[in-house]
Write a structure and sequence with these properties.
InterPro entries: Mediator_Med18
CATH architecture: Beta Barrel
Protein name: Mediator of RNA polymerase II transcription subunit 18
Strand content: 35-45%
CATH class: Mainly Beta
Number of domains: 1
Number of strands: 8
CATH topology: Hypothetical Protein Pfu-838710-001
Structural class: alpha+beta
Number of helices: 5
Order of helices and strands: HEHEHEEEHEEEH
Oligomer: single chain
Keywords: Activator, Nucleus, Transcription, Transcription regulation
CATH superfamily: Hypothetical Protein Pfu-838710-001
Pfam family, one: Med18
Shape: globular
GO molecular function: transcription coregulator activity
Helix content: 10-25%
Strand order of the largest sheet: 1-5-4-3-2-6-7-8
Radius of gyration: 20 Å
Length: 230
């Protein structure tokens, strides 16, 4: 195949994959938190429930920054007197020197689907792309604005296609690693193609096994306080 035809062939393959619904483009998510004093009990339980129980859980130490890109105002939005919400993009890289060769990760997370209120998990669009370290400069040149940054340190467990992270969030670029709270964030997630609602029930069953140490639930972000975008 000639080099001229390769981009066309790659695009055709991508479109075909989207049509047959095999690309994981949705994240099913449950979240909770646990106090520092109880986190070791949770880690012990996860070791017994998750895969590869004979080995220690995978650890991570990452830096993440969130960028926003605001859509230009047009006549319609001016008449509505309400600006559309900004596009949010997240860039994450490892702070571990042993992972210095690993690519940066660019992530887009969509708004949660309204869907069925009885659905046991939150569902939102999610796309992850590996990229070079120049991605931060590229987003800045595109007009993106940095909203916030932080470092996160924690443990990663897997149970089948489910991913469970137990992580502590710290202020970014703080040599003393000052934590933002006295608790750990616990997330149970699955990346799957659209319409894979059966995974939500599997996640609900697994979350039940972690009670009463941690209550994993779908968070209603509309009820959280927000800062107006200026």
């Amino acid at each position: 195949m000639s080099s001229e035809n390769q981009p066309t062939a790659a695009m055709d393959s991508l479109l075909q994959a989207l049509q047959v619904n095999i690309i994981p483009n949705q994240e099913y998510l449950l979240q909770g938190s646990i106090l520092d004093t109880q986190v070791q009990r949770l880690l012990h339980r996860l070791k017994g429930l998750c895969d590869n129980v004979e080995t220690a859980p995978e650890q991570f130490f990452d830096y993440e920054v969130c960028f926003s890109l605001r859509a230009p105002m047009n006549e319609q939005t001016l008449q509505m007197q309400q600006a559309p919400p900004p596009l949010l993009l997240r860039v994450r890289r490892s702070n571990d020197p042993a992972d210095s060769h690993m690519p940066f990760q660019l992530r887009y997370i969509g708004n949660p689907e309204l869907g069925d209120a009885k659905r046991p998990t939150l569902v939102r669009a999610s796309f992850d792309i590996s990229c070079s370290p120049s991605i931060i400069d590229f987003l800045t040149e595109m007009g993106c604005r940095m909203e916030f940054e932080y470092t996160v340190k924690g443990y990663l467990f897997r149970k089948g296609r489910m991913k469970i992270t137990v992580s502590k969030i710290f202020k970014a670029m703080n040599m003393n690693q000052e934590p933002l709270s006295q608790s750990y964030l616990v997330e149970l997630s699955v990346l799957a193609p659209s319409g894979s609602d059966a995974v939500a029930e599997d996640m609900r069953v697994f979350a039940e096994k972690l009670k009463p140490l941690v209550i994993l639930e779908k968070i209603d972000y509309k009820r959280l306080a927000t800062v107006p975008y200026d």
